[in-house]
Amino acid sequence: MAFTSPSSGRTPSVRLGAGAPTLADVVAIARHDAFVDIDKEALDGVAETRRLIEALADDTEPHYGISTGFGALATKFISTDRRAQLQQSLVRSHAAGSGPEVEREVVRALMTLRLSTLLTGRTGVRPVVAETYAAVLNAGITPVVHEYGSLGCSGDLAPLAHCALVLMGEGEARTADGRLVDGGEALAEAGITPVVLAEKEGLALINGTDGMLGHLALALADLDRLLSTADIAAAMSVEALLGTDAVFAADLQALRPQLGQAASAANFRTLLHDSPLIASHKGPECTRVQDAYSLRCAPQVHGAARDTIEHARLIAGRELASAVDNPVVTLDGRVESNGNFHGAPVAYVLDFLAIAVADVASMSERRTDRLLDPNRSHGLPPFLADEVGVDSGLMIAQYTAAGITSELKRLAVPASVDSIPSSAMQEDHVSMGWSAARKLRKAVDALAQVLAIEIMSAARGIDLRAPLLPGKATGAVVRLIRDDVSGPGTDRFLAPEIAAVAAAVRSGAVLDAAGPLL
Fold it and tell me: If you ran DSSP here, which 8-state letter would residue 492 be given?
């Protein structure tokens, strides 16, 4: 779950409230500490909506979330003098997470998305709540959120409640330099005044799909990079295994007009262009009719994963444009209960992506195994070892890839098909979208490791084909790897080498070395 990209310094500020944020906006704030700038007109809209809530607060008729209890206690009327306590009690009681701390970038992503919803003017909070939320983000304060606690319905209640608790000056938080302190101490150090919650505000701070959507935004950024990196790894294996590039021809791919497949095949053509290794066996003396599926069908599998990512991006874009709260203030001023907090749309695509990730990794592991097997590697030494028998070469690196791939298949089991009723059967069907998000995060990091092992193995196989050389793009990747990982030779400590290549995969260094790809 440690998949992050190193920040390249503070990015330009991101304005929230002037329309729906983009996925890039969320990643910039969450991962690269971009400064949050609130749109002035959005704050004016927040103030206007707040006046409607305050009018309802004085009404003798009960209104859910304003003058009533919550969930199964929605029929209980709360008197005016107890409503501030109602909102504070809601946040405190719902901050019931357990387990390890969630990663800083994930917390910042979910906070960014909750702030974006507050600025739609559909939640009924006061402007000061949104302004304080932005101040916490800009100060680099990260509320401590725990891995377990959300069922992905009524929103990501526990994770968001832990964030709201810090807004109140309570709970626990990490400062910008990573120190663990009380929420009040974190705010005081940053010169931020804690918020005393008024009617509706506690509910508005915890009722959204922001946790699972934040995970999705970060995963999509990572997977865009990893799918192109998977093309690189496969192209290197094609070279090392003396495969053919003929199957990647544009006219063959056009016979099946799948968009993702076309993009991956185009990458293969770019990566293998003018490769001496490919050219070395194109003559009539080559007796092989066709390559194994893990080589020949790579664009089809990688392409299907790309199409899955595009579907997930479509769903994410719709969710970014949403105002998820319950009750919600409609455009004509009504305050209405609704079910938009249900996480099913996001949960499904999180699970779908985990399936795609597992399949891409599974194919990568099969190519790694092929590189090490003398019966299938077309002349490479067993396990790419230096002195066969004395040396084991990359034998156990493949074990590692196989173990990770097996774990990925378990992570591909959908979370969204499960539901455990809660709140005395008032919330009798939940999405488990947060669970889908957490396992996808693990899967994304695991895919990077599997691809790293294939790249390391293929690079050694390419070196063992000398004096034949790889193509320009793949050759650049081999040279990059050689900065941290030595070429073929006697056995050595492999774990640091795998870690170094995995870091180059995660950071995008491998992708950058290969040059422009789709």
Answer: -
